Amino acid sequence: MKLPNVLFILIDDLGFGDVGFTQGSPPSATFTPNIDQLANDGLILDRHLAYKTCTPSRSALQSGRLPVHVTEQLKVPDNPNAAIPYNMTTISELLAEDGVYNSHIVGKWDAGMATYRHTPKGRGFSDESLTYFSHKNDFFTHNTLQSGCQTTCETENPGSHDCIIDMWEGSGPAVEVEKERAGDFVEDVFLDRALDILNEEEQTDNPFLMFYSSHIAHCPLQVPQDRLEPFLNLPNDESLCSAQTDIVNPAFDGEFQCRATYSAMVNTLDSNIGELVQKLKDTNQFDDTLIIFTSDNGGCVKLEESGGNNFPLRGGKYSDLEGGVRTAAFVGGGYLQQKNVQGRTSEIVHIADWYATIARLAGVDDIKDYRAEASGLPELDSRDQTSLLFEGAPSKWSDEPLFLSSNAVIVNEYKLIVQNSVGPAGHPGQVYPNASSYLSPVDDAGLNLNCSTGCLFNVVDDPSEHDDLASHLPNVVNQLKGYLLEDLVAYENDDVLQLECDGDVGDEVNCGCHLAIEKWGGYFGPYAKGE
Question: Which residues form the Sulfatase N-terminal domain (predicted)?
Answer without folding.
Answer: 4-364
